[in-house]
Amino acid sequence: MTWSSALRKSVRTGLTVERTTLTPLVALRGTCGVAIVIGLMLWLGTPKLAVSSAFGAFASGLVTFQRTWRPRPVLALAVAVGLAVSTFLGYVAAADHVVFAVLLGVWTMLAGMAWAVGPVSGVIATQTVAVMLVTVTLPTSVEGALHHAGLIAFGGLVQATLIVLLPIRPWGAQRDALADALAAEADYARRLRHDPMARFDPQPLMDAREAAELTPRQARSRPRQLGGPRGIAERIRPVLASLADPVLGAPAEGPERDRARDLLAAAASVLDSVARAIRWGRPVRLAPEAVAALEVPESGPVLSGAARRSALRLIALLGDAVDATDEPVRTTGPQEGRERRHLLRPSVPRLVPVGLRAVRREARWSSAIGRHAVRVAVVALIGYALGSALPLGHGYWAPLTSVMVMRPDFGQTYSRGVGRFAGTLVGVLIAGALMAAAHPGTWVCAGLAVLCIGLMYLLMGTGYSVASACIAAYVVFLLGIAGEGWSQTVQARVALTLLGGLLAMAAYALFPTWETPRLRDRLADWLTSNGRYALAVLRAFAEPAERKPRRVREALLDSRAARAAWDEAAARALTEPVRHRGISRTAERAAEAALATMGRATMLLEAHLPDREAEPCKGAGAFADALEAALPDAAEAVRHRRELDWSGPRAALDAWREQEGDTGLAIRGSELLMDALEELATALSPGPGGRNRAARRP
C-alpha cells in the first residue's frame, strides 16, 4: 500500500461513524458521577477545584466502558489511584520546567510500556499522563498537591460507589462473551450443512475463555449459568466438524448426508436457544423440531461408523449444554464456589508481578510496544516544549493530543489523529458558538459540560471522531466554569490539537514499527504452534494409555493464540504504507488457508481420540516423530524464504498407509494434515511454480 492510499484509508476510518448498540443506563450512571463531583466542588469549593476534580470522575467513568472482565468498581478505583499519584507528582514537579519535563518523559514512557499488560492497562496509563498535563496548570503547594490528588481520587470513588449501588446487568460482559461463543458455533453448524469445509473463527471461544477467568471473590458469586456451557462448547466444535466432514464423517451424498444436515440444523437451533438463555438469564426454550431431529429415527440409525459416533457424541453434548444452562440463575455459596473448578484470574495485588514480567518481556528495541513507549515519550516532550513556547496558552493540549491518539500500530495512530482533529474542530466550534451567543453562567456551563460527557459516554462506541467532539465541547464548557475566554479556548484548542496530531503522525512516519516485514515470522510461529497441536494429538493415537488431555488442550490454546496474533498482524499490515518483498498478498492468503486447514485436520483427529484401553498405533508414532523432526527446519524456511521440505513426514505417512491400508480413521486424518502441509509449501515456494514469485504487497 502506498502512502497516499494509507492516508486515505486512515481518513475514512477516522471519520467513520458506526451504528452500535447503545447503553443509556450505563452512560447515565457515569454522567451522574461526573455531575456529583462538579456540583459538590462548585457548592463547597471553587470553580477551579471543580475543573480539576472533574477529571477524576470523567476518567474513572470512561475506563469502565472498556472491554474487560474485571469488576467495574475495581477499574474505577484503580484509575482513581493512578490519577491521584500522577497528579501529585505533577504538581510537585511543576515549579521547575526541567524537572517536570524529566518526570513527563519517564512517566509517559512507563505509560507506553503499560500496553504490554493489555489494552485496558494502556488506556488507564494514558489517562494518568493526560491528568498530569492538565491539572498542573493550576499552581499550588505540596499541601495543595495532596488536596488536588485527593479530589481526583474522590471522583473515582464516586464512580465506584455508583457502580456498586446501581448495578446494571451484573455479569453482562461475561454473559455476552459466552453467548457469542455459542451463537458463533450455531452459525458454524448452519454453514457446515452447505459447506463441510467451512472455516470457524476461534476468537469468540477465546473471548469466552478470558471471560471465564475469575478471581476468588468472583468465583463465589458467579451465576451457575456461566459455569459449565463454555467447556461443553469447546467440545462441540470438533464434533460438528467431524460429523460434516466427507472424509471422517458422513458421506458427501445420500441418506447419511441428509441425516447429518438435519442434525447440524438441530444443533444450531439448540445452541442459539442456549445462547439466548445465557445472555438474558432465562430458562432454555427448545424448538420442537430440533428436539425431534435429535432423536434416533424410528426406522433405526441412519448414520454408521465414525459419523454415527460423532452424532451420538453431539446429541450427548447438546443435552449437557441444555442441562448446564437450564439451572436456576442464582449465585453460588462460598463453599460451593471453592469446590467449583474455574480458570484463575489474579487479583489486583497479584497482578503486579504479572505486569512487571510482561513489561520486562517487551522492554527491548525490537518490540513494537517498546518502540511505542520511546516514541510517545519523545513526542510528549517535544509537544510540551512547543506548546509552552507558543503564545497560545493551554500549551498542554499539544502533548495531550499526541499521547491520546498514539497507539503501538500505524493504523490506529493515524485514524485516531484524523478523528481527534475533526471531532475537536466540530466540538469547539459548536461549544464556542454557544458560549458566544448565550454567555452562560457558571452553573449553566457546568450543566452543559455534564451533558457533553453524557453524550460522550453514550456515543463513544460510534467512532473516535464523535467522542472527540463531545470531549472538546466538554473542555470548552469546563474551562468556562473557571472563567476562561471562549475565543481563546477555541483558537488554542484547534491549533494545538492539530499540532499534537501532526507530531504523533510524523513520529510514526520517522520512527515506525511496521508489522508487514514480520508477517513471515508470524506465519512461522503459527506453523510451530499448529505443529505442536498436531503432535499432541498424534501422540495420543500412538500411546493411548499415556495420553494427557491437558497437553492437547494447552497445545490447542497455543495454536489459537498464534492464529490470533497472525490475524492481528495481517490486519495491521493491510493499513501500512509498506512495500515489502518478503511475501506477496496472494501467497499470504494461500498460506493462511493452508495453516487453517492444518488446524482443522488436527481438530478432526482430536474429535476421534482413542480410549486409554485402545491398542497403540505405531504408524501414528512414526509419523509424529518425522513431523517433529521436520517442524524446526520448516519454521526457519518460512522465516527465511526457503523451500519447505516435508519429505520425511510424507515418507512416514506412506509407510503407515502401506502397513495398515487407507481405512484407518487416524490415517485419513493424517492425510488431510499432510495435504495442508504440502499446500503450505506450495504457497510459500520461492521457485517459478510457487505463489510467491511476485512477492510485492499491493
Describe the structure.
The chain has 698 residues and is mainly alpha-helical. The protein is built from 28 helices and two strands. A two-stranded parallel sheet has the order 1-2. Helix 11 runs antiparallel to helix 14 (305-325). The longest helix is centred in the middle third of the chain and has 29 residues, at 410-438.
Keywords:
698 residues; mainly alpha; single chain; 28 helices; disordered C terminus
Radius of gyration: 29 Å
What structural class results from the helix and strand content? Answer: mainly alpha
Mean pLDDT: 85
- Percent strand equals under 5%
Please count the beta strands (DSSP E, at least 2 residues each): 2
For the largest sheet, list the strands in their spatial order. Answer: 1-2
The topology string of helices and strands comes to HHHHHHHHHEHHHHHHEHHHHHHHHHHHHH
> Which word captures the global form?
globular
Give a short account of the largest sheet: 2 strands, parallel
DSSP helix fraction: over 70%
State the end-to-end CA separation: 5 Å
Helices, by number, come to 28
Q: Pick out the low-confidence regions.
A: 328-340, 691-698
Task: Give me a quick take on this structure.
The protein has helices at residues 3-15, 24-44, 47-63, 72-93, 97-113, 119-135, 142-165, 172-194, 203-211, 216-219, 229-244, 255-280, 288-293, 305-325, 334-339, 348-362, 368-389, 397-405, 410-438, 442-459, 464-481, 486-510, 519-542, 549-574, 585-606, 618-639, 647-660, 665-683; strands at 213-214, 343-344.
